[in-house]
């Protein structure tokens, strides 16, 4: 994915398998808030390779689209996601393990590296990859009477979607160990989840509207550049207070030279809504990324063993 990628005039015109994209509020043009809906209600939105490809493509476009500020991810029907579609499965386990890439991980990384924050509107129950793929999101909002769980060990599988990185950092190792070891399914109020869900609502029909209200607020009042850099500082932070001080100082110094800082101060003093326009793909700190990114491409193979070169 490069900055020269053609962006759609309308995300609603995209024909992506097993997901649906919508503008919010309803508009023929692209809006700052984009809704991504897992769209297999007849299968409880069970996860498939095609869904993974569609989600990855959508996030890669939104990542570089300055028109979009926030993503709301939700599910069609009464369930958010029933996990992987076990009728489809994961292949036969043949081939080299070093070349295998789990499909949930591709989605998690696309969401994690997207400059735009995701609010997950978990309008119903979710298990397996239906849980792990939401971990890179900024906010998770759920339904009080739905059930949630990391059921992998009960299916003879290990966790995926980069959950071994995200989950313990979000809720602590002790809670994460309990959830993964038991493979249990619990209500969102269970102490095992800690504060994984930032808001728990009594009525499933409230989840999406509440998420959209929050997304609209963020799109109107928060700098995409400041939000993206701040989230990266937390996820890819330094290893000591002193190193954090140095890194934060460098990024902060960059930010005070940007238009969004001047606009944020002016709008506050003038008691009006801000108009943040800095594009994170262009105006990110020159130190970004300040970490060494791991290459996840498959290992190369020889194309012509008979070559004399």
TrEMBL record:
Q: Which InterPro entries match?
A: ClpP/crotonase-like_dom_sf, ECH/Chromodomain_protein, Enoyl-CoA_hydra/iso, Enoyl-CoA_hydra_C
Q: Which Pfam families match?
A: ECH_1 (PF00378)
Q: Which domain of life is it from?
A: Eukaryota
Q: Which family does it belong to?
A: Belongs to the enoyl-CoA hydratase/isomerase family.
- Under which name does UniProt file this protein? Enoyl-CoA hydratase AKT3-1
């Amino acid at each position: 994915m490069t900055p020269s990628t053609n962006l759609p005039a309308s995300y609603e015109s995209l024909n992506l398998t097993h997901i649906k994209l919508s503008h919010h509020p309803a508009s023929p043009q692209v809006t700052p808030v984009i809704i991504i809906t897992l769209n297999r209600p007849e299968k409880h939105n069970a996860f498939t390779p095609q869904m993974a490809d569609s989600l990855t493509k959508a996030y890669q476009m939104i990542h570089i689209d300055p028109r979009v500020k926030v993503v709301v991810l939700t599910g069609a029907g009464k369930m958010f996601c029933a996990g992987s579609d076990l009728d489809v499965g994961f292949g036969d386990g043949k081939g080299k393990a070093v070349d295998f890439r789990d499909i949930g991980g591709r989605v998690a990384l696309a969401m994690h590296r997207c400059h735009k924050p995701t609010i997950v509107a978990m309008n119903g129950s979710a298990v397996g990859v239906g849980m792990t793929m939401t971990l890179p999101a900024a906010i998770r909002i759920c339904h009080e009477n739905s059930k949630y769980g990391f059921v992998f060990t009960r299916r003879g599988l290990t966790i995926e979607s980069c959950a071994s990185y995200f989950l313990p950092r979000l809720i602590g190792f002790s809670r994460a160990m309990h959830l993964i070891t038991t493979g249990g399914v619990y209500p969102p109020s269970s102490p095992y989840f800690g504060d994984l869900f930032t808001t728990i609502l009594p009525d499933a029909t409230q989840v999406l509207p509440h998420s959209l209200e929050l997304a609209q607020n963020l799109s109107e009042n928060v700098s995409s550049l400041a939000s993206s850099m701040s989230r990266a500082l937390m996820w890819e932070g330094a290893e000591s207070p002193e190193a954090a001080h140095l890194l934060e100082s460098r990024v902060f110094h960059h930010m005070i030279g940007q238009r969004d800082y001047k606009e944020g101060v002016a709008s506050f003093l003038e008691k009006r809504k801000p108009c943040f326009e800095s594009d994170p793909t262009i105006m990110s700190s020159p130190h970004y990324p300040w970490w060494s990114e791991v290459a996840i491409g498959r290992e190369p193979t020889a194309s012509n063993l008979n070559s004399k070169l």
